[in-house]
């Protein structure tokens, strides 16, 4: 569905916020949220942004959706400047931000949609029909009269999607739309998002879940510390670890010992990291790693060991760790 | 995408009524607080040896306090709730201008505030058996209209500050009583010291309240009334012009500072 027309063009975007420190002698400390981000999204494309918390994904989305002005750099949506041509952009875009925020809890789902339909200046004669259609799409028919505060997180997220689609925008910014939702609910939301792209919408999706990005996106940008550290198709990103295996070791108090062992094998270990009692080692030669660890298996240092093929998530972790400052 | 303006205004007001204007908190602002102000005013008048209090300033003044408090607090809570709930950025990010949304909200808050005013009129008429002279009906209605307009203008002006930054919103809360004193809701304007009157004169509501008070007098000095009306309208318009200028500036400033949400 993707075509050659450019929907989003971001060029060297920077965003600096200022945090105030101290009470009496206050100091303004600059906090760099986004540092030199550039990319383009074609019409009909599903573009993913992944990265750790605080990487700059939401700030980037907010700059592109006209809610924040970049400190420097330029961005345009369908050729319109995000700073000076907000009036041309806003009717063409829809956005949702993850979590329970962004809805009026004391109002019903229907009243929320009616309210935002008015804000988006929809023809009053067609509002009812449009809302009915959207409720059907997001699977909330029958619950529209209930107060939003009684909805589950998944239902609220689906209502967010319906709200963002009210005015049938050409472009959607979906910031972590499946955060905090159970796997079944998340699957339903991913299905709705896929349908949107099938209908020709351009989507910028941010997510923490690599499998989600892999399943949905045409291109993925890995963002860390306000910069894009990798940008490619999911297949190309995955190819970075082609042939790699991942050895996942559960260890009780032995992580240092294992890491020392790995140091001696450093030429064959592409990447390793420790998280609690879990040590993850990415390598092209898992048998050599296992051989090196064999003496530790006899003692009770290692409680479990597993070898599997590298996934996109492993690539992501590798990229992010490589770019740690 | 064609929207009927009236339907838009109604839908906005409907949300406002549902969400905040008709809450328990508003009941306190519109009924309990003004009743306390009027009650204390009445007792003070009795202690000062007056058999009958100055009905306009003590009782209707309490109603005006209710209107003013509703405007300040409800506007403040509207915006801070929107900020906290993440709906402020949805409003700003929509094709409808922030100024229009604030204008309708302020209007709704004023209309809700008139409940307090209406109750004070009822108390004056039913408890104190006061009936305004029929000949004054037109000036009273006209003064009332101008007063509501003046409140709307100043409310809209303050709402933009509340959007601009969280801190200024909190600060405006603290201005509730000082402005009520400067605008002389509950006592004649002449009681204010001369050195501070220039500040009062910059508030359109001070002129509007004075005009309403004059309209309730048995004998109206029409010359004074005209002057109060003119000042109330003129200064209100100045506030509107400043607000119009502020509107686009605030829109840009919050997009720079990132003050659209609070976590």
Describe the protein.
The complex is a heterodimer of chains A (325) and B (263). By secondary structure, chain A is of the alpha/beta class. Chain A has helices spanning 57-64, 86-89, 109-119, 124-137, 153-165, 183-198, 210-216, 234-239, 255-264, 286-298, 312-322, and strands at residues 6-21, 27-42, 46-50, 72-77, 80-81, 93-97, 171-175, 202-207, 219-224, 227-232, 245-251, 269-275, 278-283, 302-309. The model of chain A has no long low-confidence stretch (mean pLDDT 88). Chain B contains eleven helices and no strands. Chain B is 79% helix and 0% strand. By secondary structure, chain B is mostly helical. Chain B is globular, with a radius of gyration of 19 Å. The longest helix of chain B has 36 residues, at 222-257. Chain B has one domain. Chain A binds chain B through residues 17, 62, 65-69, 87, 90-91, 95, 97, 99, 101-107, 111, 114-116, 118-124, 163, 167, and chain B through 1-4, 7-8, 11-12, 14-15, 18-19, 84-87, 89-96, 101, 252, 255-258, 260-261.
Q: What do the pLDDT scores of chain A average to?
A: 88
Distance between the termini of chain B: 33 Å
Report the order of strands and helices of chain B. HHHHHHHHHHH
The total count of helices of chain B amounts to 11
Name the biggest interface. A-B, 33 and 32 residues
Secondary-structure element sequence of chain A? EEEHEEHEHHHEHEHEEHEHEEHEH
Work out the strand percent of chain B: under 5%
Residues in helix, % of chain B: over 70%
Quantity of strands of chain B, as a count: 0
Task: Summarize the amount of helix of chain A as a percent range.
Answer: 25-40%
Structural class of chain A: alpha/beta
Alpha carbon gyration radius of chain A: 23 Å
Largest sheet of chain B: none
Oligomer class: heterodimer
Question: What is the general shape of chain A?
Answer: globular
What structural class results from the helix and strand content of chain B?
Answer: mainly alpha
Spatial strand order of the main sheet of chain A = 6-7-8-3-9-10
Number of domains of chain B: 1
